[in-house]
Amino acid sequence: MSPQLPPLSLYIHMPWCVRKCPYCDFNSHAANGDLPEAEYIDALLLDLSADINAFPQAHLANRPIQSIFIGGGTPSLISAAAYARLFAGLKQQLRWADDIEITLEANPGTVEQGLFAAYREVGINRLSIGVQSFQTEQLQALGRVHSGQEALTAIASARAAGFDNVNLDLMHGLPQQSVAQALADLQQAIALKPTHLSWYQLTIEPNTVFYRQQPILPDEDVLADIQEQGHQMLLQAGFAQYEVSAYAQSNRQARHNLNYWRFGDYLGIGAGAHGKISAVVNDQLQVWRRQKTRAPKDYLAAVNDQQFATADQHITDQAMPFEFMLNALRLVDGVEAELMPQRTGLPMDGLARQRQQLQAQGLLMPGDARWQTTPLGLQFLNRVVDAFLPD
Question: Per residue in 270-293, pLDDT tens?
Fold first, then answer.
Protein backbone atom coordinates (compact mmCIF):
# COMPACT_ATOMS: atom_id res chain seq x y z
CA MET A 1 0.00 0.00 0.00
CA SER A 2 1.34 3.44 -0.95
CA PRO A 3 1.97 5.90 1.90
CA GLN A 4 -0.81 8.40 2.54
CA LEU A 5 -0.13 12.11 2.89
CA PRO A 6 -1.42 13.67 6.14
CA PRO A 7 -3.93 16.52 6.52
CA LEU A 8 -2.65 19.95 5.51
CA SER A 9 -2.96 23.31 7.29
CA LEU A 10 -1.58 26.79 6.66
CA TYR A 11 0.18 29.11 9.12
CA ILE A 12 0.52 32.81 8.23
CA HIS A 13 2.85 35.04 10.24
CA MET A 14 2.21 38.75 10.70
CA PRO A 15 5.42 40.05 12.32
CA TRP A 16 4.40 43.48 13.61
CA CYS A 17 3.13 44.52 17.03
CA VAL A 18 2.61 47.83 18.84
CA ARG A 19 5.65 47.14 20.98
CA LYS A 20 7.73 44.14 21.96
CA CYS A 21 6.72 42.57 25.28
CA PRO A 22 9.63 41.81 27.65
CA TYR A 23 8.80 38.07 27.88
CA CYS A 24 8.24 37.52 24.14
CA ASP A 25 10.69 35.43 22.10
CA PHE A 26 8.46 35.21 19.01
CA ASN A 27 9.49 36.81 15.74
CA SER A 28 7.74 40.11 16.40
CA HIS A 29 8.85 43.65 15.60
CA ALA A 30 7.51 46.98 16.85
CA ALA A 31 5.58 48.78 14.13
CA ASN A 32 6.96 52.19 13.26
CA GLY A 33 4.47 54.15 11.19
CA ASP A 34 2.19 52.67 8.58
CA LEU A 35 2.55 48.97 7.86
CA PRO A 36 3.39 47.86 4.30
CA GLU A 37 0.19 45.84 4.04
CA ALA A 38 -0.07 45.61 0.27
CA GLU A 39 3.59 44.70 -0.21
CA TYR A 40 3.43 42.07 2.52
CA ILE A 41 0.32 40.42 1.06
CA ASP A 42 2.10 40.26 -2.31
CA ALA A 43 5.08 38.64 -0.61
CA LEU A 44 2.93 36.08 1.20
CA LEU A 45 1.32 34.93 -2.04
CA LEU A 46 4.69 34.63 -3.78
CA ASP A 47 6.05 32.77 -0.76
CA LEU A 48 3.22 30.24 -1.00
CA SER A 49 3.80 29.79 -4.72
CA ALA A 50 7.49 29.11 -4.05
CA ASP A 51 6.59 26.42 -1.50
CA ILE A 52 4.19 24.71 -3.89
CA ASN A 53 6.79 24.68 -6.65
CA ALA A 54 9.60 23.50 -4.35
CA PHE A 55 7.77 20.30 -3.34
CA PRO A 56 5.93 18.99 -6.42
CA GLN A 57 5.63 15.47 -4.98
CA ALA A 58 3.80 16.85 -1.93
CA HIS A 59 0.82 17.80 -4.17
CA LEU A 60 0.24 20.89 -2.04
CA ALA A 61 -2.14 22.58 -4.47
CA ASN A 62 -4.44 19.55 -4.54
CA ARG A 63 -4.65 18.71 -0.82
CA PRO A 64 -7.50 20.60 0.90
CA ILE A 65 -6.43 23.08 3.57
CA GLN A 66 -8.19 22.08 6.79
CA SER A 67 -7.30 25.15 8.85
CA ILE A 68 -5.55 28.50 8.69
CA PHE A 69 -3.93 30.17 11.69
CA ILE A 70 -2.83 33.81 11.45
CA GLY A 71 -0.32 34.50 14.20
CA GLY A 72 2.24 37.11 15.12
CA GLY A 73 3.12 39.68 16.22
CA THR A 74 -0.32 41.20 16.30
CA PRO A 75 -2.35 40.15 13.26
CA SER A 76 -5.20 42.44 14.33
CA LEU A 77 -3.03 45.39 13.24
CA ILE A 78 -3.71 44.29 9.64
CA SER A 79 -6.92 45.49 7.99
CA ALA A 80 -9.81 43.26 7.01
CA ALA A 81 -9.43 44.49 3.42
CA ALA A 82 -5.88 43.16 3.35
CA TYR A 83 -7.07 39.77 4.61
CA ALA A 84 -9.81 39.73 1.95
CA ARG A 85 -7.17 40.21 -0.76
CA LEU A 86 -4.91 37.60 0.85
CA PHE A 87 -7.70 35.01 1.04
CA ALA A 88 -8.67 35.62 -2.59
CA GLY A 89 -5.05 34.99 -3.60
CA LEU A 90 -4.78 31.89 -1.43
CA LYS A 91 -7.88 30.40 -3.00
CA GLN A 92 -6.27 30.71 -6.42
CA GLN A 93 -3.40 28.48 -5.28
CA LEU A 94 -4.93 26.12 -2.70
CA ARG A 95 -8.04 24.03 -2.18
CA TRP A 96 -10.01 25.02 0.91
CA ALA A 97 -12.02 22.49 2.89
CA ASP A 98 -15.71 23.39 3.05
CA ASP A 99 -15.59 23.58 6.85
CA ILE A 100 -12.20 25.30 7.09
CA GLU A 101 -11.25 26.78 10.49
CA ILE A 102 -9.65 30.24 10.15
CA THR A 103 -8.16 31.63 13.36
CA LEU A 104 -6.88 35.18 13.86
CA GLU A 105 -4.82 36.21 16.88
CA ALA A 106 -6.05 39.53 18.25
CA ASN A 107 -4.78 41.70 21.06
CA PRO A 108 -7.16 43.82 23.17
CA GLY A 109 -6.47 47.47 22.55
CA THR A 110 -5.86 46.96 18.81
CA VAL A 111 -9.43 46.03 17.86
CA GLU A 112 -12.96 47.33 18.22
CA GLN A 113 -16.34 45.93 17.25
CA GLY A 114 -16.35 47.34 13.72
CA LEU A 115 -13.03 45.70 12.95
CA PHE A 116 -14.16 42.38 14.44
CA ALA A 117 -17.28 42.49 12.27
CA ALA A 118 -15.14 43.14 9.19
CA TYR A 119 -12.89 40.19 10.03
CA ARG A 120 -15.95 37.99 10.38
CA GLU A 121 -17.27 39.17 7.03
CA VAL A 122 -14.10 38.20 5.13
CA GLY A 123 -14.27 34.63 6.47
CA ILE A 124 -12.33 34.53 9.74
CA ASN A 125 -14.42 32.29 12.01
CA ARG A 126 -12.29 31.83 15.14
CA LEU A 127 -10.51 34.38 17.34
CA SER A 128 -7.64 33.88 19.75
CA ILE A 129 -7.53 36.89 22.06
CA GLY A 130 -4.27 37.55 23.90
CA VAL A 131 -5.60 38.56 27.31
CA GLN A 132 -2.72 37.15 29.46
CA SER A 133 -4.26 38.72 32.60
CA PHE A 134 -7.28 40.79 33.60
CA GLN A 135 -5.31 42.65 36.29
CA THR A 136 -3.96 45.92 34.99
CA GLU A 137 -0.92 45.93 37.28
CA GLN A 138 0.07 42.49 35.99
CA LEU A 139 -0.46 43.59 32.41
CA GLN A 140 1.82 46.55 33.01
CA ALA A 141 4.48 44.24 34.46
CA LEU A 142 4.21 42.12 31.31
CA GLY A 143 4.56 45.16 29.06
CA ARG A 144 1.11 44.67 27.52
CA VAL A 145 -0.53 47.64 25.77
CA HIS A 146 -4.07 46.96 27.06
CA SER A 147 -5.82 47.20 30.42
CA GLY A 148 -8.03 44.66 32.13
CA GLN A 149 -11.12 46.63 31.13
CA GLU A 150 -10.00 46.73 27.50
CA ALA A 151 -9.70 42.94 27.57
CA LEU A 152 -13.30 42.64 28.76
CA THR A 153 -14.44 45.13 26.11
CA ALA A 154 -12.63 43.29 23.32
CA ILE A 155 -14.24 39.96 24.23
CA ALA A 156 -17.71 41.56 24.39
CA SER A 157 -17.08 43.21 21.02
CA ALA A 158 -16.03 39.89 19.48
CA ARG A 159 -19.26 38.28 20.69
CA ALA A 160 -21.33 41.19 19.38
CA ALA A 161 -19.64 40.84 15.98
CA GLY A 162 -20.84 37.24 15.74
CA PHE A 163 -17.81 35.21 16.83
CA ASP A 164 -19.00 32.10 18.66
CA ASN A 165 -15.62 30.32 18.65
CA VAL A 166 -13.21 32.27 20.85
CA ASN A 167 -9.98 31.25 22.57
CA LEU A 168 -8.53 33.27 25.41
CA ASP A 169 -4.78 33.21 26.01
CA LEU A 170 -4.14 33.44 29.76
CA MET A 171 -0.82 33.26 31.59
CA HIS A 172 -0.06 32.30 35.19
CA GLY A 173 3.05 32.34 37.32
CA LEU A 174 3.39 36.06 36.63
CA PRO A 175 5.85 38.30 38.52
CA GLN A 176 5.07 38.10 42.26
CA GLN A 177 1.65 36.61 41.49
CA SER A 178 -0.19 34.88 44.33
CA VAL A 179 -2.36 31.78 44.03
CA ALA A 180 -5.44 33.93 44.68
CA GLN A 181 -4.53 36.38 41.91
CA ALA A 182 -3.90 33.61 39.39
CA LEU A 183 -7.19 31.90 40.21
CA ALA A 184 -9.05 35.22 40.03
CA ASP A 185 -7.79 35.66 36.47
CA LEU A 186 -8.89 32.14 35.61
CA GLN A 187 -12.32 32.62 37.21
CA GLN A 188 -12.83 35.81 35.22
CA ALA A 189 -11.89 34.00 32.00
CA ILE A 190 -14.29 31.13 32.74
CA ALA A 191 -17.12 33.59 33.45
CA LEU A 192 -16.76 34.98 29.93
CA LYS A 193 -17.64 31.54 28.53
CA PRO A 194 -14.96 31.12 25.85
CA THR A 195 -14.99 27.91 23.85
CA HIS A 196 -11.26 27.38 24.41
CA LEU A 197 -8.62 28.45 26.93
CA SER A 198 -4.88 28.40 26.43
CA TRP A 199 -3.66 28.53 30.04
CA TYR A 200 0.08 28.39 30.42
CA GLN A 201 2.86 29.36 32.78
CA LEU A 202 5.14 32.30 32.09
CA THR A 203 8.61 31.05 31.24
CA ILE A 204 11.75 33.13 30.89
CA GLU A 205 13.24 32.63 27.43
CA PRO A 206 16.69 33.63 26.13
CA ASN A 207 16.91 36.75 23.98
CA THR A 208 14.15 38.53 25.91
CA VAL A 209 14.19 41.53 28.23
CA PHE A 210 13.04 39.31 31.12
CA TYR A 211 16.05 37.03 30.52
CA ARG A 212 18.43 39.97 30.93
CA GLN A 213 16.46 41.62 33.75
CA GLN A 214 14.71 38.73 35.47
CA PRO A 215 11.57 39.56 37.45
CA ILE A 216 10.70 37.91 40.77
CA LEU A 217 8.53 34.92 39.94
CA PRO A 218 6.43 32.75 42.29
CA ASP A 219 8.26 29.85 43.91
CA GLU A 220 7.69 26.20 42.96
CA ASP A 221 5.14 25.57 45.71
CA VAL A 222 3.00 28.51 44.60
CA LEU A 223 3.26 27.41 40.95
CA ALA A 224 2.20 23.88 41.87
CA ASP A 225 -0.81 25.17 43.84
CA ILE A 226 -1.85 27.40 40.94
CA GLN A 227 -1.61 24.50 38.49
CA GLU A 228 -3.50 22.03 40.68
CA GLN A 229 -6.28 24.34 41.83
CA GLY A 230 -6.67 25.99 38.43
CA HIS A 231 -6.89 22.61 36.68
CA GLN A 232 -9.71 21.52 39.00
CA MET A 233 -11.49 24.84 38.49
CA LEU A 234 -11.42 24.37 34.71
CA LEU A 235 -12.70 20.80 34.91
CA GLN A 236 -15.57 21.86 37.14
CA ALA A 237 -16.47 24.58 34.63
CA GLY A 238 -16.83 22.04 31.81
CA PHE A 239 -13.44 22.46 30.18
CA ALA A 240 -11.47 19.34 29.30
CA GLN A 241 -7.69 19.42 29.09
CA TYR A 242 -6.67 17.90 25.78
CA GLU A 243 -3.10 19.21 25.49
CA VAL A 244 -0.40 20.34 27.94
CA SER A 245 -1.69 23.92 28.15
CA ALA A 246 -4.99 23.78 26.23
CA TYR A 247 -8.52 23.33 27.58
CA ALA A 248 -11.70 23.26 25.51
CA GLN A 249 -15.43 22.92 25.75
CA SER A 250 -16.87 19.79 24.11
CA ASN A 251 -15.89 19.51 20.42
CA ARG A 252 -14.17 22.91 20.51
CA GLN A 253 -10.53 21.83 20.39
CA ALA A 254 -8.39 23.94 18.08
CA ARG A 255 -8.35 21.95 14.86
CA HIS A 256 -5.24 23.74 13.65
CA ASN A 257 -3.27 22.89 16.77
CA LEU A 258 -4.54 19.31 16.76
CA ASN A 259 -3.04 18.94 13.30
CA TYR A 260 0.34 20.04 14.72
CA TRP A 261 0.19 17.58 17.60
CA ARG A 262 -0.95 14.72 15.35
CA PHE A 263 2.08 15.33 13.11
CA GLY A 264 0.04 16.67 10.23
CA ASP A 265 1.50 18.91 7.54
CA TYR A 266 1.37 22.68 7.50
CA LEU A 267 2.67 25.32 5.16
CA GLY A 268 4.25 28.31 6.87
CA ILE A 269 4.33 31.63 5.04
CA GLY A 270 5.47 35.01 6.30
CA ALA A 271 8.55 36.39 8.02
CA GLY A 272 10.09 33.72 10.25
CA ALA A 273 7.32 31.17 9.58
CA HIS A 274 8.00 27.44 9.87
CA GLY A 275 6.36 24.64 7.91
CA LYS A 276 6.31 20.83 7.83
CA ILE A 277 5.82 19.18 4.47
CA SER A 278 5.47 15.47 3.61
CA ALA A 279 5.87 13.96 0.15
CA VAL A 280 5.95 10.47 -1.31
CA VAL A 281 9.26 9.91 -3.10
CA ASN A 282 9.95 6.54 -4.72
CA ASP A 283 7.01 5.12 -2.76
CA GLN A 284 8.58 6.26 0.53
CA LEU A 285 7.21 8.94 2.84
CA GLN A 286 9.68 11.81 3.25
CA VAL A 287 9.28 14.77 5.63
CA TRP A 288 10.89 18.21 5.59
CA ARG A 289 10.80 21.24 7.83
CA ARG A 290 11.09 24.62 6.10
CA GLN A 291 11.94 27.99 7.67
CA LYS A 292 11.49 31.49 6.22
CA THR A 293 13.69 34.55 6.56
CA ARG A 294 12.91 36.36 9.83
CA ALA A 295 13.39 40.12 9.46
CA PRO A 296 10.39 41.78 7.77
CA LYS A 297 12.59 43.98 5.58
CA ASP A 298 14.60 40.97 4.39
CA TYR A 299 11.41 39.01 3.81
CA LEU A 300 9.94 41.80 1.70
CA ALA A 301 13.22 42.10 -0.24
CA ALA A 302 13.01 38.36 -1.06
CA VAL A 303 10.21 39.21 -3.51
CA ASN A 304 12.95 40.07 -6.01
CA ASP A 305 14.29 36.51 -6.29
CA GLN A 306 11.46 34.66 -4.47
CA GLN A 307 13.96 33.01 -2.14
CA PHE A 308 11.90 33.27 1.04
CA ALA A 309 13.13 30.03 2.62
CA THR A 310 16.37 30.14 4.59
CA ALA A 311 16.53 26.46 5.52
CA ASP A 312 15.05 23.12 4.48
CA GLN A 313 15.69 20.25 6.89
CA HIS A 314 14.99 16.70 5.80
CA ILE A 315 13.93 14.66 8.83
CA THR A 316 15.92 11.43 8.85
CA ASP A 317 14.50 8.06 9.86
CA GLN A 318 16.68 8.24 12.98
CA ALA A 319 15.23 11.62 14.03
CA MET A 320 11.63 10.88 13.03
CA PRO A 321 10.46 9.08 16.23
CA PHE A 322 11.59 11.98 18.41
CA GLU A 323 9.93 14.52 16.09
CA PHE A 324 6.68 12.55 16.15
CA MET A 325 6.60 11.99 19.91
CA LEU A 326 7.58 15.59 20.65
CA ASN A 327 4.20 16.53 19.20
CA ALA A 328 1.91 13.54 19.77
CA LEU A 329 2.65 13.08 23.46
CA ARG A 330 1.58 16.63 24.25
CA LEU A 331 -1.98 15.38 23.80
CA VAL A 332 -3.50 14.18 27.08
CA ASP A 333 -5.17 11.24 25.32
CA GLY A 334 -2.15 10.63 23.11
CA VAL A 335 -2.66 9.17 19.64
CA GLU A 336 -3.61 5.80 18.22
CA ALA A 337 -0.54 3.61 17.69
CA GLU A 338 -1.02 3.25 13.93
CA LEU A 339 -0.73 7.02 13.47
CA MET A 340 3.03 6.75 13.96
CA PRO A 341 3.71 4.63 10.84
CA GLN A 342 1.10 6.58 8.88
CA ARG A 343 2.77 9.93 9.56
CA THR A 344 6.43 8.80 9.60
CA GLY A 345 6.61 5.85 7.21
CA LEU A 346 8.36 3.80 9.91
CA PRO A 347 7.23 0.42 11.30
CA MET A 348 5.36 0.35 14.63
CA ASP A 349 7.62 -2.31 16.16
CA GLY A 350 10.72 -0.13 15.87
CA LEU A 351 10.01 1.56 19.21
CA ALA A 352 9.15 -1.51 21.31
CA ARG A 353 12.19 -1.06 23.57
CA GLN A 354 11.33 2.56 24.44
CA ARG A 355 7.69 1.68 25.02
CA GLN A 356 8.56 -1.13 27.43
CA GLN A 357 11.04 1.00 29.37
CA LEU A 358 8.67 3.95 29.75
CA GLN A 359 5.78 1.72 30.74
CA ALA A 360 7.96 0.05 33.38
CA GLN A 361 8.75 3.51 34.77
CA GLY A 362 5.06 4.40 34.94
CA LEU A 363 5.41 7.15 32.33
CA LEU A 364 3.45 5.55 29.47
CA MET A 365 0.02 3.93 29.65
CA PRO A 366 0.07 0.11 29.44
CA GLY A 367 -0.79 -1.73 26.24
CA ASP A 368 0.25 -1.06 22.69
CA ALA A 369 -2.95 0.37 21.13
CA ARG A 370 -2.00 4.01 21.84
CA TRP A 371 0.94 6.25 22.49
CA GLN A 372 -0.23 8.03 25.64
CA THR A 373 1.52 9.27 28.76
CA THR A 374 0.30 8.56 32.26
CA PRO A 375 -0.46 11.65 34.39
CA LEU A 376 3.07 11.25 35.79
CA GLY A 377 4.47 11.04 32.27
CA LEU A 378 2.68 14.22 31.24
CA GLN A 379 4.21 15.93 34.26
CA PHE A 380 7.69 14.81 33.16
CA LEU A 381 7.05 15.07 29.43
CA ASN A 382 10.56 16.15 28.49
CA ARG A 383 11.95 13.00 30.07
CA VAL A 384 9.48 10.85 28.13
CA VAL A 385 10.19 12.50 24.79
CA ASP A 386 13.96 12.38 25.31
CA ALA A 387 13.71 8.58 25.37
CA PHE A 388 13.10 8.76 21.59
CA LEU A 389 16.20 10.81 20.78
CA PRO A 390 18.44 9.06 18.23
CA ASP A 391 21.39 7.20 19.74
Answer: 999 999 999 999 999 999 999 999
> How many other CB atoms sit within 10 Å of the CB of residue 131?
29
- Residue 4: is it exposed, middle or buried by C-beta count within 10 angstroms (0-12/13-18/19+)? exposed
Q: What is the pLDDT of residue 2?
A: 62
Q: What is the pLDDT of residue 129?
A: 95
pLDDT above 70: percentage of residues in the chain: 99
Contacts of 89 (CB under 8 A, 6+ apart): 41, 44, 45
278, 124 contact by CB (below 8 A): no
Number of domains in the chain: 2
Confirm if 202 and 217 have CB atoms less than 8 A apart: yes
- 230: containing domain: 8-259
Distances, alpha carbon 29 to alpha carbons 16, 34, 273, 302, in Å: 5, 13, 14, 18
The vertex-300 CA angle with 295 and 303, nearest 5°, equals 135
Distance in angstroms (rounded) separating the CA atoms of residues 114 and 116: 5
Instruction: Tell me which H or E stretch contains 130.
Output: strand 126-132
Low-confidence ranges of the chain (pLDDT < 70): 1-2, 110, 112
Which of 259, 290, 314 is the endpoint of a domain?
A: 259
**What single-letter amino acid sits at 276?**
K
Q: Are residues 253 and 342 part of one domain? A: no
The residue from 233, 259, 285 where one domain ends is: 259
Mean residue pLDDT across the chain = 94
Asked if residue 322 belongs to a domain, the reply is no
- DSSP state, residue 52: H
* Segment (H or E) for 268: strand 265-269
